[in-house]
């Protein structure tokens, strides 16, 4: 039986990972743009 | 699709996170849910080791070819490796607080990871103390190559030399066997692979940023030289 608490911790972990991932994707695009400019 | 591999990594690590909380059973003799942190703590420690070895290899390449770009790759590896090492230390301390009642106990493994942190923090201090780029790269490379011996000793040899430790057996235990529940091992390996690939992504990003910084600095220097009468 999976407790509700664990599901919340899982959800928070996934939100943090997704947020970090999207930030890095944006950084990746910005770095590529700067590389093309110079 | 430009970001296919990135999204695959997102999915892979998301599955590792889900597996850590929903699929892997709780470890025997661990208090409450505390064993679940091991699916992040162990891959972080492994990731930091891979990072420090990567730094050593790039440093060897630098010493062989004297290209500053190789030095920048080594620097990026140490920086990201230190981040992973700090995360391994913090997650380990959180687990220790639950299991041993204190954040820090000077257990052999905690002591050896503290040495690792100091050793590689000193690498960055060394870099910060030298202005000449070639001298800085040369000394930093020699230091990181020395790390190829120091890091394996601190990660694998020193903790096993201790006669007493509270730390659970490593995945490959002192008898050279893997004594872990099959489902826990599956999640651990998925997580370790995901976080190691994640390390190489972060490393490449940081390396490219360092390259851009160097290019900007060189352009600034050229502009200053041209402006002089």
Topology:
The complex is a heterodimer of chains A (38) and B (229).
Chain A: H1 4-37
Chain B: H1 4-23, H2 38-65, H3 68-99, H4 108-129, H5 133-161, H6 182-227
Helix pairs in contact in B: 1-6, 2-3, 2-5, 2-6, 3-4, 3-5, 3-6, 4-5
How does this structure look, described?
The complex is a heterodimer of chains A (38) and B (229). By secondary structure, chain A is mostly helical. Chain A contains 1 helix and no strands. The longest helix of chain A is centred in the middle third of the chain and has 34 residues. With 229 residues, chain B is an all-alpha fold. Chain B is built from 6 helices and no strands. In chain B, helix 3 runs antiparallel to helix 4. The model of chain B has no long low-confidence stretch (mean pLDDT 91). At the A-B interface, helix 1 of A face helix 1 and helix 6 of B.
Q: Which overall shape of chain A is indicated by the principal axes computed on the Cα atoms?
A: rod-shaped
Succession of helices and strands of chain A: H
Helices and strands of chain B, in order, run as HHHHHH
Question: Helical residue percent of chain A?
Answer: over 70%
Q: How far apart lie the N and C ends of chain B?
A: 51 Å
Outline the low-pLDDT stretches of chain B. none
Task: Tell me the number of strands of chain A.
Answer: 0
Mean pLDDT across the residues of chain A is 91
From the alpha-carbon coordinates, what is the Rg of chain A to the nearest angstrom?
A: 17 Å
How much is the average pLDDT of chain B?
91
The best one-word shape of chain B is globular
> Helical percent range of chain B?
over 70%
What's the tally of helices of chain A?
Answer: 1
Give the N-terminus to C-terminus distance of chain A in angstroms. 56 Å
SS content category of chain B: mainly alpha
Largest sheet of chain A, described in full? none
